[in-house]
Amino acid sequence: MRVIITAGGTGGHIYPALAILDEIKKMEPESEFLYIGTHNRMEKDIVPKRGIKYIPIEIYGLSTSIKYMGRNIKNIFLIEKAIKKCVKLIKEFKPDVVIGVGGYVTYPVIKAAHKCGIKTFIHEQNSIPGKANKGLLKYTDLVGVSFEDSIKYIKHKNVIMTGNPVSESAQKIEKISKTKYGLTNGKKAVLIFNGSLGSSVINEKMIEYLSDADKYDYEILYITGKSYYEKFKENKFPKNVFIEPYVDNLSGLMKDFDLIVCRSGASSVAEITSIRIPAIFIPSPYVANNHQFYNAESVVKEGAGFMIEEKDLTKQVLCEKIEKILNDDKLANEVKSNLGKLEIPNSAKIIYEEIKKMI
Questions:
Q1: Rounded-to-integer distance, Cα 42 and Cα 38, Å
Q2: What pLDDT is attached to residue 248?
């Protein structure tokens, strides 16, 4: 199979794209790939390291802020330029399919594929579809979604429930012992993280909670995010609190904890669903369409997790929620069982098979 794939901006788009490529390569080892991404976001570093041919295009996200009106005008011309470049690339590469996995960079690539008469597939990781995917519905042949709730927001004749391909990676990854970070085997433990960069708001609220940790009968590993670690570690916390700036293979480490507290980005939700660890989600209110809230809501309404909105997050609220889950084995087991009902363990394979049928 010859495949052009595009996704960009965040790991939440890039890693599902790479999971799809891995599955195609596993099923058809002679496949050839071309990845089209941005010239200035993280995919430009991540993808070439995988030995995948990478071509960047200059394009920026559209913003409603007056501050970016000049860039928006420039971007209109850049989009047209990018479409022409992608048409040329498509004619040269001659793909069987073009796959878009989210982020504004996908727009010119999928639109160019449509102009060239190439079959297209787009994947939506979040419960609420992003601007790029919404704008691409009329140019795509097939849409895959990660949440059942997404279907009602996507007006397209060919929508399939695929789950998020990163869930398979999380399931297969080897468990990392919490003792690597100083925690104790046999003692209940909570893992708290906010993404690779962290969150200033959450960090501020966590200082009070962690400062009282000597009253808690469990251990806590708190991942601050790289940007906040140096400042955060200036605080003095009890012996049952462990602080790290960043952890590689986080999904492997999650497997050795009793409870997770985190944002509700699509990848985090997919990984937690896959490994079936109870979680308290604190959705970021600063993302487009408030999609993290709806990601969390899709899990919570099925009895498969818990949510505290950032505006409601206090030490008392968090303490009570954590204590309730850690001290109620019946509740924790119900949550694990419900997570299992939401899990789609072979997401990447479903996508591969649907694409294969389509082309």
A1: 8
A2: 84
| CATH code, domain carrying 325 | 3.40.50.2000
Q: Give the whole-angstrom CA distance, residue 62 versus residue 44.
A: 20
| Confidence grade of residue 64 (pLDDT, cut at 50, 70, 90) | low
Q: Which amino acid is it at 175?
A: K
CB 261 within 8 A of CB 192: yes
Residue 190: give the domain boundaries. Answer: 171-342
159 with 208, same domain?
no
Q: What are the start-end ranges of the E strands in 217-335? A: 219-223, 241-244, 259-262, 279-281, 306-307
Instruction: Name the E strands within the chain.
Output: 2-6, 32-38, 53-57, 97-100, 119-124, 142-145, 159-161, 189-193, 219-223, 241-244, 259-262, 279-281, 306-307
* Residue whose C-alpha is closest to residue 81's, from 57, 53, 111, 115: 57
13/59 same-domain check: yes
328 contact partners, CB below 8 Å, separation of at least 6: none
The pLDDT value recorded for residue 198 is: 62
Same domain, 45 and 160: yes
One domain, residues 188 and 331: yes
Residue at 206: amino acid letter: M
The confidence band for 63, taking pLDDT boundaries of 50, 70 and 90, is low
For the chain, the C-alpha Rg in angstroms (whole number) is 21
> Residue 135: its pLDDT value, please?
94
183 and 124 both lie in a single domain: no
The SS3 call for residue 331 is helix
Q: Are residues 40 and 158 in the same domain?
A: yes
Tracing tokens 């991404």 back to the chain, one arrives at 37
